[in-house]
Specification:
The complex is a heterodimer of chains A (about 325) and B (about 140). By secondary structure, chain A is α/β, with parallel strands linked by helices. Chain A folds into 3 domains: about 1-115 and about 160-180, no CATH class; about 115-155, no CATH class; about 185-330, no CATH class. Helix content of chain A is about 35%, strand content about 10%. Chain A has 14 helices and 8 strands. Chain B has about 140 residues and is an alpha/beta fold. Chain B has a single domain, classed as Rossmann fold. Chain B is about 40% helix and about 15% strand. Chain B is built from 4 helices and 4 strands. In chain B, strands 2-1-3-4 form a 4-stranded parallel sheet, sandwiched between helices. In chain B, β1, α1 (about 20-30) and β2 (about 35-40) form a beta-alpha-beta unit. The longest helix of chain B is centred in the middle third of the chain and has 18 residues, at about 80-95. The radius of gyration of chain B is 15 Å and the shape is globular. The two termini of chain B are about 25 Å apart. The chains are: A alpha/beta (about 325), B alpha/beta (about 140). The interface of A and B includes residues 192, 198, 202, 313 and 316 of A.
Chain lengths: ~325, ~140
């Protein structure tokens, strides 16, 4: 799929700004390093020309930013949405978290974003990364130039991309993609096939690394409560445990449960995790279970759809049978 | 009885309209259930937030059971249907994390089923006693 270039996006933004359709632009700006791209609100053409970037590190999902941004001015805000972002956009709309009238959404095609952690594994001491043909050329301090293919640097969530189709936009740049099946539940199935002790050992290893930075919660487009249960100073578990054990499991189970049925599987939680915990494996378990127990449901596919946890049928599966459901298939 | 014999701590969330009355009936009928079961009365099984369950485990419970009205009999029409969906997902998730699945249970017990209440509790306590102490979900920050 042909990606639209940075210049096309800047031109589009400037023309919408000068026409008065929007009065600000939610876009990406380079951070301290070229690969450390930060969301930024651009207010004029000069700033856009100077600082707007669009490359392989623009993974940030802007949907959640709309919740606060919409309240800041009477005018509309221009937002660029990749296909997976549009699912979160619809989901937030369903939950009445922002005013659709105050947003001008431009859909942009996406062929997967790079993950800096994966590049770091191959190239130590990165000084500069440039796109080169269908891959990257990484200048490093110690190993000279390292060449990587796009596939090698692709983020985990993009390897398991669920859709290149936009489900919401006012205008679309580039060509529309398709909903794809990339086996995103393979990781969950592999875990289900293990014995309980192996699963426990796996999760203990992963979750004990958690430093409770709350980045997964803060970035999640489904986590938009103004008061969060995890901020309760009296809970005794609001901070990181002073132990290198399995203490943070409640945070992770509840975090995933709070977004169950509403999680669009955008993968932001795993992207921002500084400890590289595969948080999407928790979310995907809920998605897989919901699909298996109550019929296929993709959060955000349609705005104003009814989430499975605020719905029921009189014939639903009993919890005792639900936990056994995976056994037969994997035994 | 030896001093070292393991006595599990069991938390039972009982719906005010059915299971709680069921427990009462069990008492009236002189049916026994283990004293390890601590009953918490809730207005509806649907009141039980999944966090309550994990919190009980964090604080040292060895098993948690939720009792509600039979599907179709909810005092508030549909509360227990939501409970059923929530608990199906939560129990499946706990299983996915490698937590023993016998530590959690959802049972439908009506106000007329004193015998079922007693039997359920006896079975549940027996199953949890066999598993031993809950080590996988405890949280030392919360235990007293």
């Amino acid at each position: 799929m042909q990606r639209v270039t940075r210049d096309v996006l800047v031109q589009k933004a400037i023309s919408l700004l000068s026409a008065g359709t929007v009065d600000r632009v939610l876009g990406w700006k380079a951070g301290e390093f070229s690969y450390d791209v930060t969301p930024y609100v651009f207010k004029d053409a000069e700033a856009l020309k100077a600082d707007f970037v669009f490359d392989d590190f623009c993974g940030a999902n802007f949907s959640k930013y709309l919740v606060k941004e919409c309240g800041k001015s009477e005018g509309k805000v221009l937002v660029f949405l990749k296909p997976c972002d549009t699912y979160s956009f619809n989901q937030l709309l369903t939950e009445h978290r922002f005013d659709r009238e105050k947003v001008y959404a431009v859909g942009i095609p996406c062929d997967g974003m790079a993950d800096i952690t994966k590049i770091r594994e191959k190239a130590e001491g990165i000084s500069e990364i440039t796109a080169e043909g269908d891959g990257f050329c990484v200048k490093t301090l110690y190993d000279g130039d390292v060449k990587l293919t796009k596939e090698e640097a692709l983020a985990e969530r993009c390897l398991n991309c669920k859709s290149q189709k936009h489900v919401a936009y006012d205008e679309l740049l580039g060509e529309e993609g398709e909903v794809i099946d990339s086996g995103r539940f393979t990781g969950v199935e592999a875990l289900e096939a293990m014995t309980p002790d192996e699963r426990f050992a796996f999760w203990k290893g992963e979750l004990s690394r958690c430093i409770r930075c709350n980045a997964c919660r803060d970035v999640c487009p489904a986590c938009t409560c103004e008061k969060c249960v995890f901020d309760n100073p009296k809970s005794g578990v609001e901070n990181k445990a002073i132990a290198d054990s399995f203490e943070e499991k409640m945070f992770h189970i509840i975090r995933a449960f709070h977004v169950a049925g509403r999680c669009t599987d955008c993968g932001e939680c795993s992207r921002v995790c500084p400890q590289n915990i595969p948080l999407h494996l928790l979310n995907r378990k809920f998605i897989k279970d919901i699909n298996g127990f109550y019929g296929d449901y993709q959060a955000g596919e349609e705005a104003y759809s009814r989430a499975p946890l605020v719905n029921y049928t009189t014939e639903d599966i009993e919890p005792a049978d639900a936990v056994k459901k995976g056994d037969g298939e994997n035994a | 009885m030896s001093m070292n014999e393991f006595k599990p701590k069991i938390v039972a969330f009982c719906c005010n309209w059915c299971s709680y009355a069921g427990a009462d009936l069990a008492g009236n009928n002189r049916l026994s259930y283990p004293a390890d079961v601590k009953i918490i009365r809730v207005p509806c099984s649907c009141r039980v937030n999944p966090m309550f369950i994990l919190r009980a485990f964090q604080k040292g419970a060895d098993g948690v059971i939720i009792c509600g009205c039979h599907p179709g009999d909810c005092h508030y029409t549909s509360g227990n249907y939501y409970t059923r969906r929530r608990m199906a997902l939560l129990f499946s998730m706990l299983d996915y994390l490698g937590i023993e699945r016998e530590r959690t249970r959802l049972e439908w017990v009506s106000a007329a089923e004193g015998a079922k209440f007693s039997q359920t509790m006896n079975e549940f306590v027996e199953a949890v006693t066999a598993l031993g102490e809950n080590k996988r979900l405890e949280d030392l920050r919360c235990k007293e």
